Structures are given as C-alpha cells and as structure tokens.
Amino acid sequence: MSIYETATGWQIKVQRNGHRFVHFVAGLDQKSEAKSIESQAIADMARGIRPDAKQLIHGTGLTLQFAFDATFEHRWKYESKAYQKKVQQYWNALDKFFIKQKKVTRLTDVDTLMVDEYIRTLRDKGNKPKTINNKLTCLSSMIKHMVHEGRLQHPPLIEWEKVGDNSRMRYYSPYEEARLIELAQAWEFHKPEMNELLVDFIIVLFDTGMRPWREAHQLHCGWIKSDINGMPVIRIPKEYSKTKKPRDIPMTDRVKEILLKRVTGQLVDFQPFKKLEYRWHCCRFWNESVRHEMNWTDEEVWYGMRHTFATRLVSANVQMKVIQRLMGHAKITQTAKYAKVTDEALQSGIEALQGKDKSVDKVSPNVLPNEILLALTA
Prior knowledge:
15 helices; Topoisomerase I, Chain A, domain 3
C-alpha cells in the first residue's frame, strides 16, 4: 500500500522502476484525490515516466474542496472564530453554486464566464456590491493560493463590484499606537526575540505607511538606498508595488535604528521580518491579545497603521501629491479620502469642545483632546 493516513491528510509514497514519488494531500476527506494521484503516478512509472506532482494534480483535477481546505489551513486557520464562520458561509455559497448547481467540482474547470455568472446570480438574489465582493474574497484567496503553490496555471479573472467610497477606515491615536507596542512586548511567544521583532514591525508600519504584507513583510536589505540628497530611504521595487512603480520612503529615526540593528552584516536578499509569520504570529497576537485588551470588536486591521501614517501627514499639512507618492497610490482620489477623515475628526473635536455635542461617544476615538487643541492653535 502506498497511501498512508496522517493527522492532517494523506501521504503518498510510490516506488517503481527506479522512480520514487512522494506527495502529500492535505485534508482527511481527500482520500479519493490521493488515490487518483497515486494511480496516475503508478501508470506513469510503468511507462518509464518520472511523475510530476503538479502535473498529476492538473490532470486529475484540482478540486474546489481541496483548494478551500488547503487555503483554510494556510490563510484562515488562525483567524478569529467569527471570521472563520464568515469564510465558511462564503464557501457554502460557492459550494451551492459551482458544485451543486453547475456540477463543477474542479477549480481547473472554473473559467471567467462561470465566475461572471456566479456574480450575476448573487446580484439577482439582492446582494449588495460590498456583500458580493466579500463572498468573492473566498474564491479569490483559493485561486491565489493555488497559483502560488504552482497548482493552477490559468486562473479565471474576477471582476469585482464597484462600491461607493463609504468603507470604514481604521486609524490609530498616539495612545493606541503606544498600547499596541506594549501588548506586542508582553505577548507570550515561544521565543522571546519574536516580541522585539513584532514591535519593530509595528513601528515600521506606523512610520513608513508600507502595505503590511506585500511590502513591509517582504522588505529586503537591498531595498535600503540613498536618495539624490544622500538621505537613507526604503526603495520599494516595482515588482512589490501594487501600482508596479518603484517609490522611495524616507526613514524616521526609529526606522533607521531598527533597520541598522537588523540588517547590518546581512546579504542584500536578507529579509528582516520574514520570520514573523502572518497566520501564526500576527493573527494570534491580534485576536488573542489586542482585541481582548483594547476591547475592540474590529477584525484585525494591520492596514490601520498605513492609514494612520497618511492621516498624520495630512494633519501636518503635507501636500497631497507628496502623500500620494509616499503611499504609492495610482490616483490622487485615493489619497484625498484621508483629508476627509481628518476634517471629520477635527470637526467632531471642535463640536465637543464648544459643548455642541454632549455625547462623548460621538467624539472620534482616534483624536485626543490635546491633539485637537494643538491643531487649532498651530
């Protein structure tokens, strides 16, 4: 027998005619797929062909169920229970449409036209654009993970619904920033050095406005450059930029100190934050510490640090074009929303100070009274 059950899936080991094939299939409910891969591997070996795991998965069909299970294990396993429940609901909607109605079980058979039909079905059921996009995130994550794993070569395109500019933007006050750092210092990691790494990561996010996982987490030593004036900057390559354009971000003293400590003597391809795993370290820290200690109901909002960077620049009267460049926005309209946020926060503060609004709850929690006074007297 060449298939063995493990705690989390099925281990395949086949040896024939001098060829050895080893592959793991995640998910205890994927035995039939494991058997299919095993049979094809044995057939290839009988013909003297060395089996390729990726090709076998393409050939037997990368199932939707497998893609969901593998993505859940990689992406959603350490999310909060509430978020996992939402993901399961999104998957149930996919399962109902693709598997039960369209009789499509393989992700490799899902094309762009079929995705468009799924979107139209959601519209017909009265789903709003934002709800449709939420449901599409499950499918999108599955596709991206399978492409990243090399198991899906021709992914379908997803045309996202257009929504109004009414999305909630989370940003943090200086007190909340300090509290986040305190919690990161106190969080119980298996290795104490991970606390300092997490603290440094949080500070870099607040002081650079980099996208957390696409840019900051991927930071290389080779990104540390000098601009035309000889000032140290982080130069994000176009390959990692969402707009596919490189950009320079000046370093604060805090960032200089952190990077000097972490990259000195390292090779250009060294990544100082690579050991900080998003699912294992960051999700657990946020869901088990931050939300509890800060009494927040928000899902984890690491992007809030990027938003905070932008709103602080707006408050300091930095030109919009400069902020757009630092943030890596394709359009100035993306940057302009931060001006609206700070205007609303100041207005709430002014009304509270003048006694027009007696309700403390209506004052923005992200702007402290002394900050408002400083802004008014500047």
